[in-house]
Amino acid sequence: MSGKIGQNAGHVFVFRRTVAGVRPLAPVAPLMQRWLEARLRRAQAWMRANQNHLLARLKVWGGRLVFWGCAIVVGLAAVAFALLSDKAGETFVHFAERFPWLPFVLTPAAGAALLWLTREYFPGVQGSGIPQVVAEIRRPAQGPWRPLVSLRIALGKIVLGVAAVGAGFSFGREGPTVQVGASLMAAAGRFMPTTLRIHRQHLLVAGGAAGIAAAFNAPLAGIVFAIEELSRSVESRLSGVVIAAIVLAGVVAQHFLGSENYFGRVVFFGESNELFYTVLVCAVVTGVAGGVFARMLLIPVAGWKGRLADFRAAHPYAFVVFCGLLLAALGTVSGGVTWGSGFTEAEALLSGREEVPWYFGPAKFVATVLSYLSGLPGGIFAPSLAIGAGIGQDLLPLLIDHAFPTSVLVLCMVGFLAATTQAPITAFIIVMEMVAGYSLVMSLMATALIASVVSRMISKPLYATLAEHMLRQQASVEPK
């Protein structure tokens, strides 16, 4: 049968043609209205029954957005730190070339001023920053504690670290970026719900790893650094947290700094049978040098005694002025190669486009030790890589018949960094990503492991020992 539709008094009727005639079935509009009202009542009842669940899910996603946003901020902070540090170092070298007397005035005076700011307004920013994060991760649940990560410390680390490089001290900004990243993540933890189940230690590891990844433009190195140096045992949940932070920070760093490797494109030959001799020589030499370097950096926490130690303890500002004068003299005599992080000199050695004096490695070694002992904020990652490149340059006459020159330089860089930090996996991953040295993976790994073993015969682990010292200091802090 065919049907038709009609209207009456605002209602819609469906008509059916039958034998008896035409009659309406039912009004469609009221039926639809009742159906919609029923659906709405059921939806409201479901929302009332699941209100707590919906709020919990909303909080979880809000916490994730806070975490991801903070990882992006860590990347931006690393970029800003890098650009400001490079500009400060270049400016100092430029004016030192024009006015040779400037380092003898600026370096000691700025050192004293920065030390005063550090002790008075930014306690906890001294040194690299990695030991502070390690100590904060191992922070006891009870007892007095002076924070080693905070927004104030992050600000002080960047400002004072840039100023120290701009005053001629031999510092890098990669290690300090770890403390900056951990501080930012710890601050973001206040806005994350407990249902997200990300503990403060997880945030510290994620922030530190994101910082090292963004600083070196090496995401894989950030993951390995988190496992090897910051946290010895990583849970599955923590692994996801770390990777998410590293990816976001790394994307931001690459967007602003480019996708090139840390040292650009380096040309070298891959593995060969004769490279074994080169690996052994580079590993042993850098292992001894890195062990001595780490032991000298640990002098202040290893029961340093003598007149110089007493002078440093009694007159810290006079001591930093003394260090500044020595750095000014060393930089002037060496032609300015000891000032700053050493990135420019290491890049020149790897590219072969500029001549670097043979004494660059030893001079940079001394300059970095003096800078670290001054008590100012600054890292040793970049100076360690530069020292390793300088050692490789001095070993070239001995190894030139066994390996390509840049291969020797890269092996010495990874060996000295591994010996200094005693974190061989992190060291070879960082260097491999910085120079795209994938054809030298086995040689880099072997050099790092051998150099680390040699270093352990000379010195205790640098960051772990400094962190233990900080924990002992914290135990003596007077509760407020």
Would you mind describing this structure in some detail?
With 480 residues, the chain is mainly alpha-helical. The protein folds into 2 domains: 56-257, Clc chloride channel (Orthogonal Bundle); 275-473, Orthogonal Bundle (Clc chloride channel), CATH 1.10.3080. The chain has 19 helices and 3 strands. A 3-stranded antiparallel sheet has the order 1-2-3. Helix 3 runs antiparallel to helix 12 (316-333). It is globular. Mean pLDDT is 82; it is low at 1-23. It comes from Azonexus fungiphilus. This is H+/Cl-antiporter ClcA. Its main location: membrane. It holds the Pfam family Voltage_CLC. It is found in: Membrane.
Name the descriptors.
Clc chloride channel; 4% strand; single chain; 2 domains; disordered N terminus; globular; three-stranded antiparallel sheet; 480 residues
